Amino acid sequence: MEIGVAGEMLPMRESLAREVEIAWGRLAQPGTWWTGAERLAIAGEARRAQDCGLCQRRKAALSPYIVEGEHDGAADLAPAVVEAVHRLVTDAGRITERWIQSLLTGGEMPALEETGYVEIVGVIAMITALDVLHQALGLPLRDLPAPAAGSPNRRRPEGAKRNLAWVSTLAPEDVGPDDPNPYPVHGDKNIHRGLSLVPQEVFNFFDLDVELYLQDHEIRDFAHEFRAISHAQIELIAGRTSALNGCYY
Amino acid sequence: MPHGQILIDLVEAVHGGGGAAMAAARRAVRESLGDDAFVDACATIASFSAVVKIADGAGIPLEDYKEKATRELRRELAINSFQS
Q1: Domain limits of chain B?
Q2: How many CB pairs under 8 A join A and B?
Q3: Is the pTM here over 0.80, yes or no?
Q4: Which of A27, A195, B57, B83 has a CA positioned 20 to 30 A from the CA of residue A152?
């Protein structure tokens, strides 16, 4: 299929175009811990965070943790949600375990549930992927969709434990019969486990990501090329993008 | 790396380049590698701009096999000094 960019038509793989549409729909659907309206409010806040004065002062500081102030955030989101969204968007590379724990235990602001925090991470990852794709292609940012009705099911996997990352994760051997299980589909590397406290978020993000990047089994299949750029070119882009984002995972 | 600098220029334009830099970087990739490659390059940039949010937001560690394979490189670059 083709997409229109500035009056020209560009080819886009059908599978990529399909997953982009699915991702937009999932942003607007009730999640596991947030409603569709709340998920879209989080996505909208992610866009506003780019222009937040406090975030810009923190970004410029030697440490973001020494700069006090209030975010230029939406009034309808809890302060801990705004703090989480803005930090994830503008300075994720300097997030610490202590900062996450401060959000989860409360103190200066009411506490955020760990499950809710992990779903926020998933939503931020989704809107980042979608918006950067548009930006790179030369498309204007897409309007956020209307929220879908419904309630989150608020199911926390019973087997989730805090033994791998700074948040609880669900190991493949601990997936229960009622838990969505993304591991057979997407693999169980640590990056997949990062969102696994909210298993549906693993599906939501990686269903899109395997079309943006590669399927897990394709990453080290150097005998075949799966994109119009080579493995080496993909990894060059990946490495430079990660470095610019301060990520060394 | 074939067309490596052109691809790097696109990444850097997306991450902080102005409108002119973006336009030039897009044009260079499309003219040198073609439109399919341009779209796949953009998709890769989108992927790795997003995955970092999961890695940093959840605080996941390197897998053992990556840790072993990159131990000397990380020591040389002092990457272990970073928090995540």
Answers
A1: 4-81
A2: 203
A3: yes
A4: B57
